[in-house]
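COURSE: Structural Biology Practicum
ASSIGNMENT: Worksheet 4, Part C
STUDENT ID: 0417
INSTRUCTIONS: Below are two proteins. For each, the amino acid sequence is given first, followed by its structure token string. Answer the questions at the end about the second protein only.

PROTEIN I
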Amino acid sequence: QVQLVESGGGSVQAGGSLKLSCAPSGDTTGLYMGWFRQLPGKEREAVAGIASGGIPTYGASAKGRFNISKDNAKNVLTLEVNDLKPEDTAMYCCAADPSSYNLWHGSPKYWGQGTQVTVST
């Protein structure tokens, strides 16, 4: 069983940056991991994913300002978001699944509780 615990959310002014972290417990060997976000009143969307070999993939809304990385030694997944905009205000959740397909289609096996990011003007 894998548990995912996010941290790093908070309130930030537009133009700033945040680094979100996800610390898994349990064996994540071979799991595809990623980040989702859910904007107020919107469906949850996958924004970034990374394979166990370190190759990142980004959703259309995340290209250019988001950077996903995984420190295999520390077993920590990170999402850096730069030049934050008010429309980035959302609950950000870490997720993992043996299959990238499952993650990008919204049905990963493992979910974190999420961390709130609020961007003000």
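PROTEIN II
(use this one for the questions)
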Amino acid sequence: QVQLVESGGGLVQPGGSLRLSCAASGFPFSIYWMYWVRQAPGKGLEWVSNINGDGAVIRYTDSVKRRFTISRDNIKNMTYLQMNSRKIEDTAMYYCASKRYYANSVYDYRGQGTQVTVSS
């Protein structure tokens, strides 16, 4: 049974930091691309970042560059998103997702999400 379970969300003040975690199971984690995507209230799903199987290829959407850092641990089957210098517009439900092939148009798996709220 495939599972992606996110954790680490919560309320943070603007400028603060938070680290999200995603625990994966039920599929060969180390050969999958891993993604963080988010959905703000009233908006569609937005890609945030991705990382390839060995961690050598990493990409970010422009709005989070130099503030967020994605990483993975293929021993523990974990993916992380370190979020620094949080902005109010970062408020969203954050999802962990995976794809076997980067070119696939849809995610193979996606978790239930963890809510992140940035507010003073």
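ANSWER KEY EXCERPT:
Q1: The first strand starts at residue 3 and ends at 7.
Q2: The two ends are 40 Å apart (CA to CA).
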